Amino acid sequence: MRRNRNFVERCFLGLFFLTILFCSTTAFGAIILVPSDYSTIQAGIDAALNGDTVFVADGIYTGEGNKNLDFKGKAITVQSANGADNSIIDCENNGNGFQFTSDEGQDSKVIGFTITNGRFFQGGGIYVYNASPTISNCIIKNNSTQYTYGDYYGGGIYLKSNNPLLEHIYPIVSNCIIAGNKSGRRGGGIFLDRADATITNSIIVDNSTGSDFDAGGGGIYNYNLSSDPTITNCIIRGNFPNQGHTASSTYSNIEGQTSGEGNIDIHPAFVDAVNGDYHLKDFSPCIGAGTNTGTPDTDIEGNPRPNPAGSNPDIGAYENPLSVQTIRPLDDLDIFGIEKENQWSYDSNIQRKITKIDQTTFPKMTYEMEIIGNGLLIGKEWYESSNGQLLLWGESPYLLDKGLVVAWYPLYVGKQKVSSAKVVGYPGTTISMRVDVLSFEEITLGLGTFDSYRLGYRIKAEGPGGTSTQKFKWWVVPYLGVIKQSTPDGKESLISFSIDGGNITETTDHDNDDLLDYQELAMHNTNPFDSDTDDDGIPDGVEDKNTNGIVESDETDPSNFDTDWDGIQDGTESGLTLADIGPDTDLAIFQPDLDPLTTTNPLKTDSDGDRASDGKEDKNSNGRIDDNETNPNDPKSYPVRRSLPWLDILLDIK
What we know:
Number of strands: 41
Strand order of the largest sheet: 1-2-5-8-12-16-19-22-24
Strand content: 25-35%
Largest sheet: 9 strands, parallel
C-alpha cells in the first residue's frame, strides 16, 4: 500500500509540473524571429500562435509578405527589435502596412515600426475593420488612400466598425507619429467610424485631405460623430484643412483649440519638424504639460515616462529629460509668430524660413522671411527681434510692394481671425484681420461654370492717427485658386490662373483624353494633365463617352478604377494588357488582364449571376482563372448552397 501511494504521489507531481510548464508556455508564448526563422513578416505571423511574439530584425522590408500584413484573428505581438527608426515597412505605393479584419482584440499588437509609402483604398498605412488592435511606438508617415479626392478615408489609419449590432471597436494608438499622410474626403491622419479609440501621447501633424467642398478632418475625422475617442497628451497641428474632431481631447497641444482640461495651443518647438525630428526642444511648452493618467510607462524610444520620475509627463511621443521648459534662447529664430493679445501664436500650416537680415525696408533692422506653400513661394514677411520675440512688421503676399498687412493668402477655408497684432515702430498701432466664408457660389467663366468659395476679408488698422478699414472679397475655386476678386470700392475683376504649370483656356486638352481641361475640373473631378486619372488603363474620355460629367449606366467612372466595386479593375475586366495602355497609366496601380481573351463586365458586380462577385471568383483580380479560383463567366463553377438559400443572404455573399 505504501508503494502504491508513492507511485500516486509521483504521478501527481509529474502532472503538476507538466501543468506549470504548459501554463508558462501559454503565458509567455514563443519567440519567432524574422528573418532568421522565417524570411518574411507574414510568414512569421502565419506560424505564430496566440501569445507568441514575432520579433523583427532591423531593416527595410518590402514586397509580398512584408506588407498588407494580416494577423488573421491571432492575439500575437509583432514587434521590431530596435524601434521604428530601424524597422521600416516600405509599401512601395502599392498596398498598406497592416490589415486587421478578423475581430482582433487589444492583445493583437503592432509595436515599433515605420510604415511608409502605403497606398490603399482606405487606410493607407493601417486598415482596421471590426477589430480593436493595439498600435504603439510606430511612425506612420507619407501614406495615402488610393486617391486623394472623393470617398477615400484614412490616409494614415482607418478605424471602422460595421458590426450589424452597431457595436463599437476599441483600438489603442499610443506613442505614435502620424505625419504627412493624405486621404480623399475624410481623415488625413486618422478616420473613425464607431471606433472608440484611445489615442495617447501621439503626434498627428501635417496630414491632409482632398479639396472637396465638404472635406475635413485633416488630423482626425469622426464620421457622423459616431465615435467616442479618448485623446490624451497628443500634439495635433498643421493638418489641412483643419485639425478635425478633437473635442474629446485633454492635456493636448491642438492648433486652434484650448477648450478641454489641460489643453494648450502653442507652437510645440520640435527639434526639426521639416526633416521629421519631432523631439521637443528644451524650451517647448509641451514639457511637463501632460497628465500621468493612462500614460504609457515609456516613450516611443523606450525612455522612461515621466522623466524625471515624479514629474508630469510631456505632451507628444518623445519624453524630454527636463521636468519643466527653459527660456527660449534669443538666437533661436526657427520659432516665429506675431504677438497678439499678450499670447504667442504660431502658424504651422505652411513653411517659413528666415532668409536674410534686411536693413533697407524699415527704420530698424528686420528679418526677412519667405513663406512657402506647397513648395511655391507665396509671399514674404518682415519681423523684428525684440526681447526674444519676433514681432511682425509687414507682409507682402504675391511679392507686392512691401508694407503693413495688406492681404492674407487663403491657405485653407474657414473662419480665421488675427487680432491685435502689434506693429513695431508705430507705437499704439494695431492691425486686426478677419477672413470669413460668406457663401458657396457658382461662378461662370469663359471656361464653364465652377463651384467656388466666396471669402470676405476685413483689415482694420487702429492707431493715434485714427482708424482705417478695408474690405474686399475673393472667390476661390478648388484646383484653380483665386480666380476673381473685388477691390475695396466694390469693383470685381477676374484673375488669370494656371494649374500645374499649364494655362487653362476654353479649348485646351493638355492630356489629349478628349475631355477639355475645364470640363475635367468643373464636372468630372479628374486631372486635366493625366489622361487616365484612375489608372485603370481606360482614358478618361473613353470612360465618360458623352463628356457630360455624369457616370451613366453604360459608362465606367473615370475617377474610380473599379466602377462596380467587385474588386477587379475596369481595365482588367475589359481585357486590357500593357500593350493597350497609354503613358499616363501608373504601372504601379494598373493590373493588366493576364487572359485578355476572356473578359467580364466592369459595370456588373456578378457577371454570370451566380451570386458570387467577379472578384470573389477571380481572387487575385488578374483576369485569369488560376488554381483554386472559379470562373466568373460560368455560373456552374461556383458552389452555391442551393439547399439553404437563406444562408447566403445572412452571410451577405458578394
